[in-house]
């Protein structure tokens, strides 16, 4: 055998060995991650990148060993929630092939990061019973005419917040509210003007809403988040598949975004659901319309409960038709069979002092006391005595240069409600010069312009 022949055989052998090695490598199946260990700060995110070998058609499944410390999205985006260690795992569906990354979550060094995270910052404070839970809420304040602003003349998502005349919300405003004695904030929020053709909420709007929610949440306050001013598409007299789809989509997205918040965040399914401009729009509606409201209250509860996270135990508020406080609205309300549901009521009483801006009446009378007592008795008999809690999500009286009378009314109202276990939320729309003037907090100066009324509210809850 000559030298050329020997060299040729050696080269052939090397080629065959290399070919076999390639085939063996190609045949190896599995998944690997670009990192086996990593760190992230609370409120920050990074993305893990998987590499799949030997499998053509596959679906990756992501999981976290502790979602209270870090979450992971379907694309491998890991977000720090609370300091600690957690294992993020990716798996090829229907196989045993998987890879993991140990993640260390570090505390945020800058407090401002708290406004962009879905961290569970507060601790549960109730026994799990809704009546017991509501006792923790002393008195609340509404951030009215702000995130709930609507109008087809508003072009930019973030412009809605100030479109109705109020300044951009700041954490300092919320701190002023808490310092004044309120331990809860209701954040009325409209969503319909922030949806695309697939009913997906604008990213900018969702992030802004979350930031405002966090202003109160991270200051250890109870927060009510709802859907507000949606009467152009939510019409009880015209129930439809389109209406149901939009409602479902909105609440699925809200539920997903806030699912890791603890019980200090309360969801409210609807605000004053009614058919606008109908004969009985503010008087309880029709039997058929009340039935539709019941249907959507149940749908709301089902959507939230199925969304996972802390939403399985979140306290939820459902309204009567138009949040009306009288019969037949309260009589026909079907409260979902869920032990963490609260009835939502709005009670602007008496009407002459609360909402009738054309009325010259400015005195608080004994007849007004009887009106308030009658409504509270109805709520007590229908709900409270049966173990169903109630929150009066909106109340207040327009400013008629009668603060001494409003103060008397305020103390009587919240005191009477407190006796039967109903907390009340003042409707503050920021207005004090025209229309329905419910301003308490001057959001520009961060001072309460009607201190006499504020003092009476706080005395009433003692």
Explain the overall architecture.
The chain is α/β, with parallel strands linked by helices. It has two domains: 30-109, Sandwich (Immunoglobulin-like); 130-460, Alpha-Beta Barrel (TIM Barrel). The protein has eleven helices and 19 strands. The strands form five sheets. An eight-stranded parallel β-barrel has the order 10-11-12-13-14-15-16-17, surrounded by four helices. A four-stranded mixed β-sheet has the order 2-9-8-5, with no helix packed on it. Strands 3-7-6 form a three-stranded antiparallel β-sheet, with no helix packed on it. Helix 10 (403-419) packs parallel to helix 11 (451-460). The model is unreliable at 14-26 and 110-120 (pLDDT under 50).
Specify the CATH homologous superfamily of the largest domain: Glycosidases
Rg result:
28 Å
Secondary-structure-derived class: alpha/beta
The domain count comes to 2
Low-pLDDT windows of residues: 14-26, 110-120
CATH class of the largest domain: Alpha Beta
- The CATH topology of the largest domain corresponds to TIM Barrel
Shape: elongated
Mean pLDDT score, rounded? 91
Through-space gap between termini: 109 Å
Q: Give the strand tally.
A: 19
CATH architectural grouping of the largest domain: Alpha-Beta Barrel
* Main sheet record: 8 strands, parallel, barrel
Keywords:
single chain, 462 residues, alpha/beta, 8-stranded parallel beta barrel, 4-stranded mixed sheet, 19 strands, elongated
What's this entry about, in short?
With 462 residues, this protein is α/β, with parallel strands linked by helices. The protein folds into 2 domains: 30-109, Sandwich (Immunoglobulin-like), CATH 2.60.40.1080; 130-460, TIM Barrel.
């Amino acid at each position: 055998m000559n030298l050329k022949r020997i060299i040729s055989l050696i080269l052939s052998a090397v080629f065959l060995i290399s070919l076999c090695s390639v085939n063996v490598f190609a045949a190896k199946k599995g998944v690997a991650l670009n990192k086996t260990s990593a760190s992230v700060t609370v409120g920050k995110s990074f993305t893990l990148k998987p590499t799949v070998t030997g499998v053509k058609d596959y679906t990756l499944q992501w999981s976290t060993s502790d979602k209270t410390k870090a979450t992971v999205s379907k694309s491998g985006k890991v977000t720090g929630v609370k300091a600690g260690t957690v294992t993020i795992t990716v798996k090829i569906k229907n196989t045993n092939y998987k890879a993991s990354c140990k993640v260390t979550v570090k505390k945020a060094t800058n407090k401002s990061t708290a406004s962009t995270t879905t961290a569970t910052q507060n601790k549960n404070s109730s026994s799990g019973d809704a009546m017991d839970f509501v006792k923790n809420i002393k008195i609340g304040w509404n951030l009215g005419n702000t995130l709930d602003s609507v109008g087809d003349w508003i072009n930019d998502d973030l412009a809605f917040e100030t479109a109705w005349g109020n300044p951009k919300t700041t954490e300092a405003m919320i701190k002023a509210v808490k310092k004044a004695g309120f331990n809860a904030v209701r954040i009325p929020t409209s969503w319909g003007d922030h949806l695309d053709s697939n009913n997906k909420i604008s990213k900018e709007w969702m992030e802004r809403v979350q930031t405002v929610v966090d202003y109160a949440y991270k200051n250890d306050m109870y927060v009510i988040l709802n859907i507000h001013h949606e009467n152009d598409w939510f019409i009880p007299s015209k129930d439809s598949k389109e209406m149901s789809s939009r409602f479902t989509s909105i609440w699925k997205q809200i539920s997903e975004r806030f699912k890791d918040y603890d019980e200090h965040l309360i969801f409210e399914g609807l605000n004053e659901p009614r058919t606008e401009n109908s004969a009985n729009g503010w008087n309880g509606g029709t039997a058929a319309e009340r039935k539709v409201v019941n249907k959507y209250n149940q749908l709301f509860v089902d959507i939230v409960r199925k969304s996972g996270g802390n939403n399985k135990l979140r306290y939820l508020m459902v309204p009567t038709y138009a949040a009306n406080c009288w019969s037949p609205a309260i009589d026909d309300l079907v409260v979902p069979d869920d032990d963490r549901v609260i009835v939502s009521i709005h009670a602007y009483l008496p009407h002459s002092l609360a909402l009738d801006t054309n009325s010259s009446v400015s005195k608080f009378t004994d007849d007004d006391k009887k009106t308030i007592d009658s409504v509270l008795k109805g709520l007590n008999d229908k709900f409270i005595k049966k173990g169903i809690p109630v929150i009066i999500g909106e109340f207040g009286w327009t400013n008629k240069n009668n603060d001494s009378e409003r103060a008397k009314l305020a103390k009587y109202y919240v005191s009477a409600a407190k006796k039967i276990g109903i907390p009340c939320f003042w409707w503050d729309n920021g207005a004090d010069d025209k229309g329905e003037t419910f301003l308490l907090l001057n959001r520009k100066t961060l001072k309460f312009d009607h201190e006499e009324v504020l003092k009476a509210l706080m005395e009433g809850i003692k």
